[in-house]
Input
Amino acid sequence: MQRITDDRFIDDINSNIGIIHKICNIYFMDAHDRQDAAQEILYQLWKSYAGFKGEAKFSTWMYKVALNTAITFAKKSNRKFEKEELSGNEHFMAEHREPKQADETMAILYRAINTLSGIDRAITLLYLEENSYDEIAAITGLTRGNVSVRLVRIKKSLKEKLEKII
Output
């Protein structure tokens, strides 16, 4: 029975591993911090997997555990969310671009998102992953209305930040 649970956990994680990478990229700018956080997230997911009852989608549950772990990990490690202002030397590129340019554009977007508060980062990530407002609310513990209001403010803030560098 334990082997089946282990195999199911590994399959579920492998199917959704991108969630961990995205959360770590949003919350941690340093590569070593991202690796440490990813390990902590995997550990917490494993520890709490027995409590996953399947009442929600696995990815919804995984987001909730991973986001809470990332935020807690950052606080416990005395790592403050570094809010870095964007410089005028960065350029936001159009949608049609080469892979290297796409990576650079994603880096700029991640840096802009990194200037947001912890919960706003989580909301942004979940929104970009095309989760519904109800799913975002379930994962973050906010109300659907609060998610809606925050998204309007987040979009406005990000737009202003990115327009400054265009």
Observations:
- DSSP finds eight helices and no strands in the chain.
- Residues 87-166 form a domain with the Arc Repressor Mutant, subunit A fold (CATH 1.10.10.10).
- The helical segments are 2-15, 17-27, 31-48, 58-76, 99-114, 118-128, 133-140, 144-165.
- Residues 89-99 have pLDDT under 50 and may be disordered.
